[in-house]
Amino acid sequence: MPEIAGNDAARKAWNYPLFDAIFNRRSRRMSLGAEIPAGATKYKSEKPPMPLDDVEEALLVQAGTGISGMNLSDLPYEKPDGKSASGNTMIQFTGRTWASPCGSHGTELIYFNDSGTYVVSLKDCRTDRLRQYETEGDREGIVSSFRENRIKILDHRPEHPREYPAMLSFNVWDSNIEGSTVFLPVINNTWQYINGLLLVCGWADGGALIIDDLNGDVPAGCERWVAEGLLDANRPLPLSQTDMGQSVEPAFILQNIALAEQAMGLGGWIHAGVNPVVLAESIGFRQVTPPGALFANPVGIDGVLEGYCPPYYKDMDAAVDAVVAEKFGRDGIYTPDAGREAPFLDKNEFIAAVPRYSDKLVQCVKDIANYIYTTYGRFPMQVPTMGISNVWCQAHHLDLDFYDKFYPAGAYSQSQAEHYETWHGSARPWEQLRKRELAGATR
User: Fold this and answer.
1) Domains plus CATH for the chain?
2) Is the dihedral angle over the CA atoms 246, 248, 254, 260 positive or is it negative?
């Protein structure tokens, strides 16, 4: 039976006006089963926690980070002419619901609920459609994609201290509690970083000279390439400024989820999550502590999220080769006859015009990557290999009685007022939850 196509609740959410979602979005924190223990808003929900169902979670996940169709990659694709070097910067043509530098989309979403902790792994998924969900019938793929691409990594929520400094004290009462679903973006900071080095070192009229500004401004392993004419000594680029390109991606993802919550009539909010150092351990990231470092560096979750660096690659040479192969390898997006997707009518003409990386450029980037890894015992130099967001977004079912008690009309909108009847066929679905709990207790 279809779960999205023909589902009136999903249709209403899909057609919810964008500007209404933007201007009606609020942090709505009082979930079913939650309690504010003291103060002017002291309140205890008398209703049991009510988890989101699969369709609700699928819509939120796919709104946050789902495949939207091919990105247009509407850039000049000419061979280097001394004036342009943008011709091979795109690294993927499959687009997502959020913007990413060079179409890299190296951020993936972890979510957790009462049943466990999951990674939604979409980086290697492909599409050959310009619009992934062009018709209402296409929307059925939202749930199937959600189920096919989630990987369970824990049978429970992350176990962490519910106190400062692991959590901010004013979030403890209702953050990551029973019945809620929490969404946590994680950036693979190596994927686009290597691609970015290939870009800035490959400028047609002289690439940037990467200097280590934390180590006396010495060339970061690339002085040879100035002498060989690949890099321009008059274009110094501090190493500390090269690894921040994907830092905005989690914010895009979480805002998408927050707007979808409003359209669906759910509660929730974006807030400071658990300290990333604590979360890395509680979620099960492999961690490596560089010499002299205060904290371990999360490098990945084996077989699920893996950095382009050791221990997942033999060395940084192999990691750089893997990124280059995504473009020009046997199955690369710029490889003729590879059968890969491209958003252009004449794919062959397009591919023929894309400039290839020179052997010199690839070796230069390998030298820089090896310098970073050898000098600092990690890659990249400053940011974690896997950047665990220090904010997350929660979704939950609201206890509307709280808002009726303490707030004037308008604290929640029609989508929240009608959520239970629209999505669950009852204005009081928690009564069925109680009946099931009582039935289980008397067996």
Assistant:
1) 8-30+51-396 (3.40.109.10)
2) negative
